[in-house]
Amino acid sequence: MGPEGEAVRVNHVKLLVGGVQLRDGVTTVTDILGKIFTRAGLFAVAMEKGYASTIYGAHQFDPMLVTEEPPVSYGDAEVDVLVALDYDSNPDAPEQPNRDTVLRHGGKLRDGGILVYDSSTGEIPTGALEARGIQVFPIPARRIAQAELKREIVKNVVMTGALFRLLQFDSDETYLRQLLEERFLRKGREVVELNLQAARRGRQEVERVLEANGYELPVRLEPRPGRHRAVYISGNECLGLGAIAGGVRFYAGYPITPASSILEFMEQWLPRYGGRALQGQNERESIRAALGAALAGVRSMVGSSGPGISLKVEEFGVSGATETPVIVVDAQRAGPSTGMPTRPEQGDLNLVIGGGHGDFPRIVLAPGTVEECYTLMLEACELSDKYQCPVFFLTDLNLSEGKKTVLEEVFRRPQVVRHGIVREEVRSKPYRRFEITPSGISPRSVPGTPGVVFKASGAEHDEFGFVSIDPRKRAAMMEKRMRKLDTYLREDWKPPQVFGSVRGNPVLVGWGNTRPVLEEARLLLQRRGVPVALVHFTHVFPLHRRKLEALFADAGPVVVVEQNFSGQFADLLQRELRIATRRVNKYNGVPLYPTEVAEAVLQALRREGAVVRIGGDSQPVPVEVGRNEHEGD
Amino acid sequence: MGPEGEAVRVNHVKLLVGGVQLRDGVTTVTDILGKIFTRAGLFAVAMEKGYASTIYGAHQFDPMLVTEEPPVSYGDAEVDVLVALDYDSNPDAPEQPNRDTVLRHGGKLRDGGILVYDSSTGEIPTGALEARGIQVFPIPARRIAQAELKREIVKNVVMTGALFRLLQFDSDETYLRQLLEERFLRKGREVVELNLQAARRGRQEVERVLEANGYELPVRLEPRPGRHRAVYISGNECLGLGAIAGGVRFYAGYPITPASSILEFMEQWLPRYGGRALQGQNERESIRAALGAALAGVRSMVGSSGPGISLKVEEFGVSGATETPVIVVDAQRAGPSTGMPTRPEQGDLNLVIGGGHGDFPRIVLAPGTVEECYTLMLEACELSDKYQCPVFFLTDLNLSEGKKTVLEEVFRRPQVVRHGIVREEVRSKPYRRFEITPSGISPRSVPGTPGVVFKASGAEHDEFGFVSIDPRKRAAMMEKRMRKLDTYLREDWKPPQVFGSVRGNPVLVGWGNTRPVLEEARLLLQRRGVPVALVHFTHVFPLHRRKLEALFADAGPVVVVEQNFSGQFADLLQRELRIATRRVNKYNGVPLYPTEVAEAVLQALRREGAVVRIGGDSQPVPVEVGRNEHEGD
Amino acid sequence: MNTKGIKLWEENAVPKHRIQWCPGCGDFGVLAALKQALTELEVMPHELLLVGGIGCSGQIRNYLNGNAFHGTHGGALAYGLGAKMANPDLKVICLAGDGDTLAIGVENFVHVCRRDPDMVLLVMNNGVYGLTKGQDSPTAGLGQPDERGSREEHPPMVDALLLALASEATFVAQSFSGDVKHTARMIVEAIQHPGFAFINDFSPCVTYNRFNTYDWFRERVEYVPDDHDPSDRDAAWRLVREFARRGKIPLGVVYRNPRPKRPQRRLPMWEDELSGVDLDPVLAGYR
Amino acid sequence: MNTKGIKLWEENAVPKHRIQWCPGCGDFGVLAALKQALTELEVMPHELLLVGGIGCSGQIRNYLNGNAFHGTHGGALAYGLGAKMANPDLKVICLAGDGDTLAIGVENFVHVCRRDPDMVLLVMNNGVYGLTKGQDSPTAGLGQPDERGSREEHPPMVDALLLALASEATFVAQSFSGDVKHTARMIVEAIQHPGFAFINDFSPCVTYNRFNTYDWFRERVEYVPDDHDPSDRDAAWRLVREFARRGKIPLGVVYRNPRPKRPQRRLPMWEDELSGVDLDPVLAGYR
Ligand SMILES: Cc1ncc(C[n+]2csc(CCOP(=O)(O)OP(=O)(O)O)c2C)c(N)n1
Ligand SMILES: Cc1ncc(C[n+]2csc(CCOP(=O)(O)OP(=O)(O)O)c2C)c(N)n1
Ligand code: SF4
Ligand code: SF4
Ligand SMILES: [Mg+2]
Ligand SMILES: [Mg+2]
Question: Touching B: which chains, 3+ CB pairs < 8 A?
């Protein structure tokens, strides 16, 4: 579709901002946009982060969907507006003056869309794009910033101004001015004015092109102020908030993408709530300190990503055996090994359900949305405390670092309940820290409680905590610990969310952060006349066999969609329910998109046992390797 | 059965030697016995080690089955002869002059069996045993050693002499003299003679009791010299031998029960074959050094147990992603956490198949017998080299440390094949360390090869090893790595051993070290008219779905017997084959015994989905904890 | 000695006759010294958190009254750190072996020294991995002029005192469990030190280290001279090195130099401290 | 400089224009110094094994010709150790960051120092975790009279030289990547040292450490004086401490004291070396 004849689309636009990492300030721009759109009562979703793990020099891009009502997902990869912040030539193709962002993402621009790019070092041949009805706006932003405004740093404000003009947004500068004042007023009013001036220059440049080309802009964003209270926030920040609201007062982490920002959040905010955050000197110091703090009675949490979770495995057993609770956030990234540290994946499920020698109880939760990073974390806090075992909380790179507009009503403040903690000695009977109980849950205490003393050990022990290899005691203690999972399934497990009717229909199954995309894929399929249901899990392990058997009893073919190679959750379903699964897997480091999922599901429905690999081949195709597109680790 | 009327049983006797750990030298005695019986052409099996992880003071016991022909398993817990080396009173029951060994194991003595104990500090009330026809031999061994022979240390030789007399064995002292000469001749002939004198005094004491009571001995061991060449050896020693024969020249370990003896073996023997053994300063130094050595081209191996395997998890991914082979021996012990370090278990399967973030190829083997510790290790060496990935080798405490008579014909010497190593530059094309191939296997090289340079990285990479997050390269590389498992299943996977006919019959399933017991349980069941088949796995992961589906297609109910709580292999079978499993689990730290397995299988056959817990209750039974039977960690 | 006090330390503990150390094990001396020191300081068992390492030594946690924790090999210091940060009122004493602390646990040792939590680490240094039956620990080779260092497999021993000094520990002392009174003295001073206090106690392993015996130590130990200035880090380094040159082993406080500390409070953990907190200050930043 | 030689080091490497360090990053100086040193020593790329740490610094392995390996964070030294033990003919150079080596990797650092394999460790010390965007590393705080040590969260910095000395390293040197020639000199001497050679190179992170800048270092670096006796471990300790007291940073070889070594041979790895070995000597013991 070209823009001709098409009505202007109001309050539904997908942007993509790209540039050279660190140098061009891509996220600075999208962070400002997201915040401003949120203030304007719109919904912004920027969950498809594209960056490299090297600090400087790689290509970076940040797509963002902006809508009137909360969108189901971030939509497909196609964009309406492409913003290229990079101003120099592509080092891999010095012969052409094109820019990296345009080269890489031009193809994603929809016909009739908008390209705006920094033309400071010259204009780009954009005939091919224009042939598709794309409106092209070359803006010499950096030159304007350097030559006219004498501050290179405002080049992105020029671009932001241009973009706002293109979106026909904030023409009176209300939103931009407010934000600039918040940020820069303490540096002086001149700084604010300089920035506003930069934005205005961007607008002017757009006007110039509009006039020269007689373009009619195809999209518009209209503020909807005052409809609701909302924040523009990331999954990591939401789960940090959830932890604080849920009573966590000790956090330990060792820097690692994409979990580092939890540590930063906790270092900033925990002290305000009387807590402490520790940057461990290694992955094990982190979790051990958290276990020590938990032992002392404080709700404790650690966060890491694959490599750090692998390093902590031995301590999970300590938590399980000594019944010292800890919440373990695994912000997944693409593995194995160092893998692709800045790319999303759901590849750690086997690790968190199987990592550790011997059997011990554990619970695995995986939020489906940024909002659930908060609400489900409240649950994680309660569960870890009640069941005195490790509770895993699986997000992934995009859910962790991606940001979106979240309504503030999500952040309800819970009543914190400390479960069965013995606060003083009951003189009539000696205190048994590991009392054999029907629920498997034993009365906890904390050191320092007058008259109460307990011994806790990772070695097998009796009810008092003294080491024992007596076969009867061992069996009873093992059973007691594992019984906690039965209690959990009975009292606290939550069934999957079911969208549509499972009966006789094909069933899409997902877990964790893929829910929005799967919901949208389901809608697409329905629109195409395929009546598929969606069953989505947040309470991933253990699974309630009986209830799920009932759920799947009359289901059609089951297609499990996961962002990993082997289908780890599909494996778990097969193991627990013995149902046949078909699989859709994506593991190339690119987020899942609704349309491709819908396509893949259709393919998977074609034959039993199908494994559809999005972006992958089942054939051995040699890849072209001549051009070293180096990325860091 | 009393001894009256019963014929003397020749060359089939089960002994149990008990005493205070370290002080009483229990294993010194059984090691001598096993060696001598082996030399005498008999078969000795001592695979049910009973000891505590504390060094001194706990009760220790070592059962041993001695037979004419190779026994199926070590048999049931019942013993014919109980040898109590401890001479003092039980510290938990100072009121009775009984000894710990007799108290703990008297009940296992069969009616008509033999009890011999050290009566140096007084005799024990043994009326109850005698009422069962048990012949009781109080031998003041320690007193004889101290008072007559002036060397307390020979007390066990007195007991050994007594035992030989009771077994009507070595009456001309041939075997004992030879062994003593080998050990002590360099200390002087008097030492040998003193020991022989001690043994003779033991014999005399037995004579005295025999005469006084008119006992007729119920068992006899007759040498069968020269039938075959055999050694008396442990599983760890066999796998060490296998590794040397298979070309391993670098071994690294950090001390841990029950893997320490592999390190000791390798430190002793590798240098002789030009290799080196490294005691790591931690678990990670061990495996990292092994990976470094493997990278340099040397076949490398590490060994540990649960806690150490948990600590190495991150490195498994390095091995998988960089395609650097390493053999990982996991000598399992009872977990979780420190658990029961001296008790057997099969609780690490989930860890070795699921430990690690992201998907990467790995192979898991588990020998069923001491002999297979050798033969299967040869395979592990080849597989790790061919597939350039981690190969896990799962034994357990009893298989590792337990010893038995092994025929030397087992130790065939293989031709070592180095798979596809590039030894010089092929000038026509640049060397691609990670070339995308149909088999998934790429041409390896070693640093130092003239003209060849390669980069290997745990970060995702292209065919040359340079870091890349290009989605197509990533997908191709991931698929290439994982394709190795298809190749393995096609070319090298071994189906399970099948005993009996699966068709329409109940099927017992096991893996790894339980095979002998399951074989014997199957025979017991057959004798009772239950036509059960046994399917036993050594090639545990990955499983060949198609072949196994065919195997189980017409099988009766499947009962998976495992020494762990949750049924980890049963879970894997369900996940891969989606067949219903019933389960028999034992997790109290006591080895499996054929009769109890047979009983449990019968129970499991009674209803679908049955989980039978040997030695455990599904009810919450409070255990008696008043008496602290402390054990170490 | 206050025997009534000492009796207190035998409650909630494994009965004496069930202690599973070898007769004569150096750890017995440490146990006695701990009881003396805790009695002298009038510490109550419920205030104590004994964090045991994994090893023969680590079992001491169960041979003594007081709360106890025992996790992974090498982890004692990090558990202790977390517990102390959570609740500064606890008296945290880490009790571990030389292998536990200096081999696998060195990752924590170096960093906890410089973090300086107000807790005690007593290492029962016997030059071997006792519990795994006598392999060389990082402190193996004390006093043995062997060929250590000529191959990677057998490196020279770690001098725990020098490592602690290099790692910015603020209290570094040495004792010998054959001298219970002095060991008890060191424990008292360590507990009183406002920061991380490390005691390297030589506790002979009579079963697996037949070289560094009680007699061997008795011939070589010497108290730190009175004129030593324990607040001088360089003097501490010199003292350790000089003793070593003379083939002697210093007993006493080698280094003590407390750092100014910010006072810390117990972290909120009870329902009234945690419920209904106001998230507005945080949310404000995201609006 | 031999530019033809230097060109050699750019083959089998990421092309220059694709190097993803920030412009001005200190690691560029190290890369230049490495090329100079390797050219001077006439090392061939195929003989080299570059083991990279995880961090901005560790990427240097791909910016230079030579075999390279890159495993887990903190593991470089241990991989290097194994490779060197397997094949003593390799030239093993570990290239890692301060975080990698001294935070998570300290477990290897301490022990590999004393194991003394004949390999080089060059740490690109910038006081931060560069690759994870600037958090404090264990060497954070150099020259900053802040309140480090007053809380467990912010311990005083690790002085890598002192830690190496305490850990029995046999070669300890320091350089500054702003002084490429001197850095190259240190690398040459480190490679020539028969044992483990540690170079602590200050390589400024221009993005996340705005305090320890090139200028900051230039004002403070001083070559180790000629009269320093590098074979004296105590003198080395004193030298480091004295420089610190003066607010100065020594550049040069602080300590060098090779140990007598047993010669080692490449381990058997080819088919003819491995096949059909005689197991009889082993089996004999079990008969
Ligand atoms: C991760 C891990 N690796 C190895 C072990 C086995 N292990 C138990 S105790 C011990 C060494 C103990 O030595 P030390 O700390 O010196 O204590 P000691 O027994 O000498 O008192 C080892 C290696 C373990 N429990 N966990
Ligand atoms: C086990 C593990 N934990 C954390 C990380 C994340 N990580 C990557 S680089 C790095 C720190 C790098 O700092 P440094 O070693 O000083 O190198 P620099 O980037 O400063 O050169 C960290 C923590 C990781 N890759 N693996
Ligand atoms: S083995 Fe050594 S350290 Fe362990 S209890 Fe015995 S004497 Fe003590
Ligand atoms: S972040 Fe720092 S260390 Fe990393 S490349 Fe940039 S300047 Fe260098
Ligand atoms: Mg020790
Ligand atoms: Mg750094």
Answer: A, C, D
B34-43, B189-198, C117-126, D14-23: which range is least confident on average?
Answer: D14-23
For residue A502, what is the domain's CATH number? 3.40.50.920
- Exposure string of A458-482, with b = 16+ CB inside 10 Å and e = fewer, is bbbbbbbbbbbbbbebbbbbbbbbb
| Token representation of residue C9 | 């330390």
A447 lies in the same domain as A518 = no
CB B26 within 8 A of CB B17: yes
List the CATH number of the domain containing A347. Answer: 3.40.50.970
Let me know whether A473 and A551 are in one domain. Answer: no
Does one domain contain both B435 and B568?
no
DSSP secondary structure letter of residue B555 = B
Chain C positions contacting chain B at CB under 8 Å are 14-15, 17-23, 25, 54, 56, 58-59, 62, 70-74, 103-104, 106-107, 129-133, 135-136, 138, 152-153, 207
The CA A507 to ligand 2 mean position distance, Å, reads 42
Last residue of a domain, one of B185, B200, B220: B220
Task: Tell me if C128 CB under 6 Å of ligand 1.
Answer: yes
Taking the CA of residue C43 and the nearest CA in chain A, the distance in Å comes to 11
> Are B487 and B505 found together in one domain?
no
Which atom of ligand 2 is the closest one to the Cα of A53?
A: 8
* One domain, residues B541 and B434: no
How many domains does the structure of chain A reveal? Answer: 4
Residue among B318, B448, B456 minimizing CB distance to D90 = B448
Co-location of A463 and A377 in the same domain? no
Q: Mean pLDDT across chain A, nearest whole number? A: 94
- How far apart CA A560 and CA C65 sit, in angstroms, is 54
Cβ-defined contact of A456 to C70 (cutoff 8 Å): yes
Residue A92 has pLDDT above 80, yes or no: no
**Ligand closest to CA D125:** 6
| Whether A208 and A315 share a structural domain | no
pTM for this prediction: 0.97
Domain at D37, CATH number: 3.40.50.970
Which percentage of chain B shows pLDDT scores above 90?
91
Q: Domain span at residue C245?
A: 3-142+149-284
Distance, in angstroms, between A515 CA and closest chain B CA? 20
Check A632 against D20: CB less than 8 A apart: yes
Give the chains touching A; criterion: ≥3 Cβ pairs < 8 Å. Answer: B, C, D
Q: Whole-angstrom Cα distance, residue A47 to residue A49?
A: 6
Q: Using a 6 Å cutoff on CB, does residue D208 contact ligand 4?
A: yes
| Residue of chain B nearest C21, judged by CA positions | B56
User: Which of 16-45 (B) contact D at CB < 8 A?
Assistant: 38-39
Pick from A196, A220, A244: which residue ends a domain?
A220
Q: At B116, list the tokens.
A: 């011999």
Could you tell me if A237 and A187 lie in one domain? no
Instruction: With cut-offs at 50, 70 and 90, classify the pLDDT of residue B621.
Output: very low
> B177 to each of B139, B150, B173, D287, how far by Cα in Å?
21, 20, 6, 15
| pLDDT of res. A626 | 38
Mean pLDDT of chain B: 94
Distance CA A318, CA A312 (A): 10
Nearest chain C Cα distance for residue B185, angstroms:
24
Of residues B619, B615, B497, the one with CA closest to residue B563: B615
- Count of structural domains, chain C: 1
Domain that holds residue A388: 232-410
ipTM surpasses cut 0.95: yes
Does residue B135 lie in a domain region? yes
Q: Within a domain: residue B601?
A: yes
CA B244 distance to own-chain centroid: 19
Which among D207, B208, B535, D56 is positioned nearest to A54, based on CA atoms? D56
Strand order in the sheet with A539-541: A276-279, A248-253, A299-304, A326-332, A390-396, A363-365, A539-541
